[in-house]
Amino acid sequence: MQQCLPTPDLKTNIVYYKRQLWTMNKTIRDLGDDTSYCFMWHEALVGRGSDQMASVLYKHIQANIPSNVQNLTTFSDACAYHNIAVAIMFMVTIQQHPLKVVSQKFLVPGHSHLECDSDHVRIERAKKKMDVEIRIPHDWYLFVKTVRDKKLFTVYEMKISLGISQIPPTYSTPVPINTAKKTNLLSLLPPIDASYHGYYQSLTTSERQTCIGPDHYSEDDDDDDED
What we know:
By secondary structure, the protein is α/β, with parallel strands linked by helices. It has a domain at about 5-60 and about 110-205. The protein contains six helices and eight strands, in the order E-E-E-H-E-H-E-H-H-E-E-H-H-E. Helix 1 (about 50-65) runs parallel beside helix 2.
């Protein structure tokens, strides 16, 4: 999982004192053909817990693993809660996909660098070099599509409607953001084109919602990387 991407991304010091909306990017590198897939969403849609990681992998298998593939090997860290959800997802998926064997390999703690970590570095370096305006999460999705290693990244915009057959979805509607965070976001609107103001003004809020930071995980947020 890439470090959360700040939205809006403004070139002003005031953002260091404000709570921003975080855009998530879960990257999967297919070691067979060196294709990188970026699954992106934002915190006002859903969280970034183990359920979301399982949904991303489910989407990837359904969309990108050919039906003639019978053996799949994944590599991940040893995060227990994350891998329990992923294991359940694999059990369901193997009933719906021609896959016969799924091998989940765990990296040794302290030696968990994955190819997708290099992809995240490329995204961050490209952003520093390019004068691109990031006003809403969708701008991040479009930008990441322009970043390349040997190939352009394939980007999927995750939707809340994505579910796994036989597993009830965690969310049925977008989650609210913290009220104080929305106040901060609205204070950042003056430098942004007025056509984007409505996006932030329409965000739902809750006083009880945790105001997350770029590396914070809520109660159901137990994940890290997987390739």
